[in-house]
């Protein structure tokens, strides 16, 4: 076990844990943002630099600070390490620079993009970025390629996090896409016209932190904040598929199906293409109840979750609501549920 | 009944004086007030023949703007609808097809865009939320009264401004004289 101090908070984690995961054990607003690191994907992380932190003391044995900011998602902890994230102005300034770097070539087409409202880059830029751009040159563009009937690729929006490449490697049994080219010309592609049609390839949509890979069956149907997420499951015949999903309703229509994500936007249980793209009727699913939406998310707009502070005083609450209240403690009135 | 609070005043009924009993002085006093009002400035106007001047910051009927090439600016991003406190705005987005580049500015556009004027409270939050400078509340137009409720649901047919530079709304981004003349040529050839 190693004891580290993160933003003045002491936490004890097993050896070999990364700084980011140690911070996630503390939770809340001190957790560094992550654009490329994805817990279920081995080898992910270390690319986007969004999670840079200052190590003020390397370890108990060698308390010298690390000379440069380190990527917290790939740096393992050492006993006695002192890490500064939100308490260090240098980290916050550098993060502002990282946002600017990531946005250099990212088109500002959020009004058109289907990811808007649940986009990691949008949240990251909103929290850490500046509202103006200094970039005057032309943004990079790519020839549009078609990667199959289910997935829409917008290469201009890609931030080269490699998550989809790892997903295809580790979740599906055959990867046909990857990152081609180098530097400025690097792009996600299939090299020769090839469609992504593996049984589990739909998961690249969920792992994509931006709107580079989006669901074609959901394209321009609605915006995420007009839809209502409902947890549901079904007995999927595919052995690797968990069958546990979130259905996104608008009225009575299931507009799209996604895997369930945790508070860091990570999918723990992958779902197959059949569940994701073919089953869009309520009758196909066993509904469990509304999915919890973070109060600070734009998706919570116009969603009237019960802000019940005293469940006991309201008689005859539906069972699903009681379960929901037990799993997610009631919202605090007059503030964000952080 | 006995008073509970003991604060009620007991009115004494005195007999009327001679002037009161004569009746006419009170009549003439009342008539003089009536006559005076004939010659005073009137508080009302003869609407709809006459209208009052609008304040320059008045928030009236919405308009969906077009850009300098006559294309619709709205891209159906839904930010106006999510900002709307009255939930008056609904829209359906669609993908622009090939050959429609002169109709819609972006890849995505609003197939239908409806504002329920009965719900709308004319707060202008949609205008503030719009990232494309597409929706504005005009200072010189109002949603007029109508007989039927469904007539208050304004679709794109009544919200989108005409492409003709002379008939455009005064709110929002205005065309420069060069843009207006080139657009006129473009509209004539089309």
TrEMBL record, chain A:
Gene Ontology terms for molecular function: 2 iron, 2 sulfur cluster binding; 4 iron, 4 sulfur cluster binding; metal ion binding; oxidoreductase activity
Required co-factors: [2Fe-2S] cluster; [4Fe-4S] cluster
Domain 4Fe-4S His(Cys)3-ligated-type: 90-129
Subcellular location, principal: membrane
Pfam family name, one: NADH-G_4Fe-4S_3
Cellular compartments per GO CC: membrane
Subcellular localization: Membrane
Stored InterPro entries: 2Fe-2S_ferredoxin-like_sf, 2Fe-2S_ferredoxin-type, NADH_UbQ_OxRdtase_ferredoxin, NADH_UbQ_OxRdtase_Gsu_4Fe4S-bd, Prok_molybdopt-oxidoreductase
Name of the protein in question: 2Fe-2S iron-sulfur cluster binding domain-containing protein
Organism listed in the record: Hymenobacter polaris
Automatic annotation (TrEMBL), chain B:
Subcellular location(s) per record: Cell membrane
InterPro entries, sorted: 4Fe4S_Fe-S-bd, 4Fe4S_Fe_S_CS, NADH_quinone_OxRdtase_chainI
Annotated Polar residues bias: 176-190
Binding site for [4Fe-4S] cluster 1: 74, 77, 80, 130
Bound cofactor: record note: Binds 2 [4Fe-4S] clusters per subunit.
Molecular function GO labels: 4 iron, 4 sulfur cluster binding; iron ion binding; NADH dehydrogenase (quinone) (non-electrogenic) activity; quinone binding
Catalytic activity: a quinone + NADH + 5 H(+)(in) = a quinol + NAD(+) + 4 H(+)(out)
Keyword set includes 4Fe-4S: yes
Pfam families listed in its UniProt record: Fer4_7
Predominant location: membrane
Sorted UniProt keywords: 4Fe-4S, Cell membrane, Iron, Iron-sulfur, Membrane, Metal-binding, NAD, Quinone, Repeat, Translocase, Ubiquinone
Cofactor: [4Fe-4S] cluster
Membrane topology qualifier: Peripheral membrane protein
Region annotation Disordered: where it falls in the sequence: 161-190
Gene Ontology process terms (BP): aerobic respiration
Described purpose of this protein according to its UniProt entry: NDH-1 shuttles electrons from NADH, via FMN and iron-sulfur (Fe-S) centers, to quinones in the respiratory chain. The immediate electron acceptor for the enzyme in this species is believed to be ubiquinone. Couples the redox reaction to proton translocation (for every two electrons transferred, four hydrogen ions are translocated across the cytoplasmic membrane), and thus conserves the redox energy in a proton gradient.
Family: Belongs to the complex I 23 kDa subunit family.
Subunit structure, interactors included: NDH-1 is composed of 14 different subunits. Subunits NuoA, H, J, K, L, M, N constitute the membrane sector of the complex.
PANTHER family from the UniProt entry: NADH DEHYDROGENASE [UBIQUINONE] IRON-SULFUR PROTEIN 8, MITOCHONDRIAL (PTHR10849:SF20), NADH DEHYDROGENASE UBIQUINONE IRON-SULFUR PROTEIN 8, MITOCHONDRIAL (PTHR10849)
Protein name as catalogued: NADH-quinone oxidoreductase subunit I
Gene label: nuoI
